[in-house]
């Protein structure tokens, strides 16, 4: 996911440095990533530790990490859901289209009109399935994470969503294709929270605390 401050390129080095200090074998350790963001560091440690505790106040982060960190076993039929969602006829007046697409009269261009409608269509269907209990938590967050990642690939922004570009850039002109947000398998029972870190730190216990706080304030 396009994200200013992502540690994707540093993730292997961070793991190596932690292993130098703690141990090359982290299999009995609990790893806490308390400002998780997109969850890159938690995902790096997930296959190697007993447990990951992930936290972030942002809703998008909670969704991504509920998929990438908590989901750890194979899901039957997940690709069937992806294909069905990707092929739905577009709705016309959803939230994203009304507020973030030029064609609605919003005077904003975060997404092309067609992609905005498709985001709405998929999001509404996921919520409908969830409320009707046709899908459980694991599939729900897998599908939401898949939509977030896929929508980000066609967003008409420069990494952050504080502003949109005046003209649709090449990637934003492409049609949104819903692609699975693949997660790593593991034996651990991992946790994801959406709390103030100052409060959460009083409730949890672990062996390794990774701190990457917001540095814009």
Blueprint (SSEs and pairs):
Blueprint (H helix, E strand, L loop, with lengths): L10 H11 L8 E4 L6 H6 L5 E5 L3 H12 L7 H9 L8 H6 L12 H19 L5 H16 L17 H4 L17 E3 L3 H4 L7 E3 L7
Parallel strand pairs: 1-2, 1-4, 2-3
Explain this structure.
The chain is α/β, with parallel strands linked by helices and 217 residues long. The chain has 2 domains: 1-72 and 183-217, Vaccinia Virus protein VP39 (Rossmann fold, 3-Layer(aba) Sandwich), CATH 3.40.50.150; 76-182, no CATH class. The protein is built from 9 helices and 4 strands, in the order H-E-H-E-H-H-H-H-H-H-E-H-E. Strands 3-2-1-4 form a 4-stranded parallel sheet. Helix 2 (40-45) links the parallel strand 1 (30-33) and strand 2 (51-55). Helix 3 packs across helix 7 (137-152) and helix 6 packs antiparallel against helix 7 (137-152). The longest helix has 19 residues, at 113-131. The mean pLDDT is 95.
What name goes with the CATH superfamily of the largest domain? Vaccinia Virus protein VP39
Give the percentage of residues in beta strands: 5-15%
Radius of gyration: 19 Å
Determine the structural class based on helices, strands and strand pairing.
Answer: alpha/beta
Shape: globular
Give the rounded overall mean pLDDT.
95
Name given to the CATH architecture of the largest domain: 3-Layer(aba) Sandwich
Tally of separate domains:
2
Major sheet details: 4 strands, parallel
Q: What is the share of helical residues?
A: 40-55%
CATH class of the largest domain: Alpha Beta
- CATH topological fold name of the largest domain: Rossmann fold
Question: What is the total tally of β strands?
Answer: 4
